[in-house]
Design brief:
With about 160 residues, the chain is α+β, with helices and mostly antiparallel strands. It has helices spanning about 20-25, 35-45, 135-155; strands at about 30, 50-55, 60-65, 65-70, 90-100, 105-115, 125. Strands 1, 2, 3, 4, 5, 6 and 7 form a 7-stranded antiparallel beta sheet that branches. α1 crosses α3 and α2 (about 35-45) crosses α3. It is elongated, with a radius of gyration of 20 Å.
């Protein structure tokens, strides 16, 4: 029997770098606000988020909330369109806003609206940024949506001035 040595190359899942994420979240776009708003709506749809409340006048929309387990697994609707939730399940929607910063210059913000089900409580508990119970994957999903919007609109992004040292 002949043994053939081999090399196993393991590739880690390549996520965005911190600088890519920072660029996507702070990008300023030189375009018409309605055009950028349409791009943001398309990106949300492509990321499998359904659009809920849309305010064309203020260039904002919210995705329809989805339920996730505490670990971030989607809890989809079953029979009769009911979703079985358990203790610490998290309800997440995203508010996407296109905001003017000057003539034909806009920024996009993606803000998660997050609530947690606590067994035995009649009310959902809001989870704000900085809350120790806010699962880290919530911000990860918001970051993914921000990157998706940026990838579609980066041709309109204004190049920031280079800082002199």
């Amino acid at each position: 029997m002949r043994i053939v040595p081999f090399v196993l190359l393991a590739f880690a899942a390549c996520g965005p770098s911190n600088s890519e994420l920072r660029t996507a979240k702070t990008a300023v776009y030189n375009t018409d606000g309605s055009r950028l708003f349409g791009i943001a709506e398309q990106a949300a749809g492509d990321e499998n988020y359904k659009l809920g409340a849309v305010d064309d006048g203020h260039l904002t929309f919210e995705t329809i909330p989805k339920w996730y387990s505490a670990e971030g697994d989607l809890q989809s609707a079953g029979a009769d369109n009911y979703t079985l939730i358990r203790g610490h399940s998290v309800k997440v929607s995203f508010v996407i806003a296109v905001t003017s910063t000057g003539p034909n210059q806009y920024v996009v913000t993606v803000t998660p609206h997050t609530y947690q089900y606590v067994a035995g409580s009649p009310q959902l508990r809001p989870l704000e940024q900085g809350d120790p119970y806010l699962p880290p994957w919530v911000n990860g999903r918001a970051d993914t949506l921000s990157l998706s919007i940026y990838d579609r609109a980066k041709g309109m992004a204004v190049t920031p001035p280079v800082a002199s040292q």
